[in-house]
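Consider the following assembly input.
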Amino acid sequence: MAVDMNAPVLVVDDYQTMVRIIRNLLKQLGFENVDEAADGREALEKMKKTKYGLVISDWNMEPMTGYELLREVRADEILKPTPFIMVTAESKTENVIAAKKAGVNNYIVKPFNAQTLKAKIASVLGDF
Amino acid sequence: MPSPEVATKVRDAITALKGADLKDPRLGEVLTLASQMSEAMQMFFSSIDRSLFDEMRYISSYIQRTRLEISNLRPNDLSEDRIPGAGAELHAVVQHTAEATNLIMAVAEDVMAADTSDPAAYQAFVSEKMMEIFEACTFQDITGQRIKKVVDTLTHIEQRLERFASVMGVEDAELEETAEDKRKRENLLNGPALNGPEVAQDDIDALFGTEGASMDQSDLDALFD
């Protein structure tokens, strides 16, 4: 099935520079409809109003972490199917395992490059 | 026993002795015994006085030494000057880094959005923008110097605390977990690893299966072994 490049993508990160970087990379990849949130709580509120085709989230944020957001999303019957990629500097095995167990679709360790982001999005959404 | 009460009892004892039959040999023995006991008690209390004095002198000396060591830590210098100074330097580093990054990204966005229909004009525009990127990169030298000052401060604090702990024989106490500690533990907030990621992206890819394969619970459990 072809990837819907117009489906909105939600970038969740409390570091505005990182949001800008990911937004630019997504634009280069062909995703024009990019929304943003500064933490898990704001992201969850947005997700309850808009159906996103993909969520790309940082882990370490206040007051709600990306890990908490992931668990909230997977526990919600409506939000559950939303593809979710974690992009984070948290690189301990326990973090990767916990995210995997919580239902994350892929995991990118910062710092990352455009090729890695493209490959992980493709592994989750399909080739585009 | 209060002093007036003791004096009364002694007075009563003397009166009783005066009225007693001093020729009674048993009374003489009792008095001799009382005298010996009195001397023994005096020696006992003297020794207590001395040991108490020695103990108080040791405590006083320990307090003086502690005050001296705390003074050597220069806590006011640390709390009023060095630590706020280090905080300000780090704040400046964050600010300069963010400014430089935003400037570089803005330039990159300008270049990507530039009109390419006139190659000569486009080349001139790109060259001008590249110079802006070079200029923005000069932040690295300044931030390097700022971070060195912070590292020097931390080293200074570390050395003084080490000396203090060593001289005073201080051992780390068990600390109760704070709400913040609990949140960090439950949310696995470990922060970036020193010297790069602890788990490489390739290993993560293997865990997730880049070709779409996924690991089952037993595969995941095996990673904990």
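The longest strand of chain A covers residues 84-88. Ask yourself how this observation constrains the way the partners meet.
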